[in-house]
Amino acid sequence: MSLLKRLGRTREQAIEEVERRGEKTQAESGEKRTGNVNRKGDAWQTEETDTYSRLIEKTPSTQPQMASAFAARRSAIVQIDQIQELRLAIHRRIVDEMTVAEQQLIAQGKEAREQIKNLISTYFEREMATNNYSLSRAERMALVDDICDELLGLGPLEPLLKDGSITEIMVNGPQDVFIERDGKLLLSDTRFYDDAHLMNIIERILAPLGRRVDEASPLVDARLADGSRVNIIIPPLSLIGPAVTIRKFSQTALSVENLVGYGTLSENMAVFLEGCVKARLNILVAGGTGSGKTTTLNVLSSFIPATERIVTIEDAAELRLQQRHVVTLESRPANIEGTGAVTIRDLVRNALRMRPDRIIVGEVRSGEALDMLQAMNTGHDGSLTTAHANSPRDVLSRLETMTLMAGMELPVRAVRTQISSAINLIIQQSRLQDGSRKITHITEVQGMDGDTIILQELFRYVQDYLDDHGRSVGHFEATGLQPNFMEKFRINGVQLPANIFSKD
Question: 79 and 170 share a domain?
């Protein structure tokens, strides 16, 4: 990517904007000089100091405060404009004066970040010496970091990506950037220059993945280098400009102990789920958007023995398994000619020929559900997947619908029989009103009774009340019922505490 595109501006755009600001400043100065020579009695006089003098004379008790407040706001606006003008001036100087050796240094990327920051500081000092800018040391350091992020990273998004307390970033056009922190949505002070600047950052996200987004293909799923999931949709589908949603993942993979500490599940539930994975049960994690399904799937996968071969299948590779023997597969959208697409269903069918001990599908959304169920029913025990649903019963209905989307003329009873024999356990995860994430149900799929799939709840979360701060207060409990697959625990050598299913 060229240096000009890294900076988010073409050279002509940068020059034009700096000159436009210069002309505006000269025009304002000319107005002030004209105002000085005008008669003070004229109604059209424009000088601000004279205007405020007249206001103060009329209402001496209140107008000085108004004038002071307005002056403070105007000073802040001038400061913002000054920083923006300085930023563009430094961009222009870098483009004009950078040597081949310096360009090669920038091409090294983030490995040479400190040297590049020193280089940018040099250009910064040159510009400061040429023009009389008044900035504090903190503002200078922040400006150098901003320019460095523009060159090496994702520009305005970099500080948000580095902030570990932020779990999601939602860009609604260039001016509105929202974040999720502690389960709450907040408006950040991050901004992009314009749509072109935001599109430049989008291209930088997609370029390493070989994916594209344009008017012919205006939406795309992608991922960042750290595995964070990215969804992008642009005009004409988005009427507010380019929209980017980034689901961040922790730099360190969460363990089951972390989830217990966060209150996502109880210790007994954690012990039971670990036993289920080791006993090679087929598990489906269900929940709504942002409920933590992928995080739970990652934790469940950590229980798989390191001696087994695992194949993961996803739209955008998010899972980060700790085992060594893992094959990661990722679907591929169609190319610009509309050909070359590789779907999740294609990858599931191919995975069956790769001698997997476990198949993990990031999420089933359509016809691949049939292939996944058939894999679970043909010797690939211990497979894991997720699906969107509001309850364990709802997810069974969704699986029926998705199975029929495969295009097979199957009777409903045959589909339900496949589901009941393939899925052993459903984990329902929910995001509560306070933003916390809980495993609300652990439910066994027992089989068929006539045309109905029988479910048996083993563990659940009971919300008692909301405290004064709106936080959910509740408890986890066992139902007192034992699952029908206890024999699988014995066959696979899994020992569970004797009282794990006891109702408190």
Answer: no
pLDDT in tens, 103-161: 777 666 666 777 877 887 877 777 777 766 666 777 777 777 777 777 777 888 988 98
CA 202 → CA 2, 46, 286, 471, distances in Å? 15, 44, 31, 37
Between 226 and 303, the higher pLDDT residue: 303
pLDDT tens-digit readout, 363-393: 888 888 888 888 888 778 899 999 999 999 9
pLDDT, position 380: 82
Residue 84: pLDDT band (50, 70, 90) is low
Give the separation between CA 139 and CA 121, rounded to whole angstroms: 13
Q: Strand 176-181 relative to strand 384-388: parallel, antiparallel, unpaired?
A: unpaired
* Backbone φ and ψ of 364, nearest 5°: -95, 130
Cα separation of 358 and 282, whole Å? 10
Q: Are residues 446 and 399 in the same domain?
A: yes
Ranked by mean pLDDT, which of 27-36, 208-217, 240-249 comes out on top?
240-249
Secondary structure E strands in 432-503:
437-449, 452-466, 472-478
Residue with tokens 């399904």: 293
Query: Which of 251, 267, 299 is a domain's end point?
Result: 251
| Residue 395, Cβ density class (10 Å: 0-12 exposed, 13-18 middle, ≥19 buried) | buried
- CATH number of the CATH domain containing 199: 3.30.450.370
> What are residue 408's phi and psi, to 5 degrees?
-90, 140
Residues present in the chain in total: 504
- Residue 380 placed within a domain: yes
Contact criterion met (CB below 8 Å) for 296 and 259: yes
Q: CB neighbours of 251 closer than 8 A, spacing ≥ 6?
A: 164, 226
- In the sheet that holds 472-478, the strands lie side by side as 326-330, 310-314, 358-361, 384-388, 283-287, 425-431, 437-449, 452-466, 472-478
DSSP 337-359: TS---B-HHHHHHHHTTS--SEE
pLDDT at 26: 54
Q: Say whether both 148 and 163 belong to one domain.
A: no
Closest CA to 291 of 369, 368, 423, 386: 386
Number of neighbouring beta carbons within 10 Å of residue 413: 11
- The structural domain count of the chain equals 3
Pair (297, 242) in one structural domain: no
> Per-residue b/e over 463-494, b at no fewer than 16 CB within 10 Å?
eeeeeeeeebebebbbeeeebebeebbeeeeb
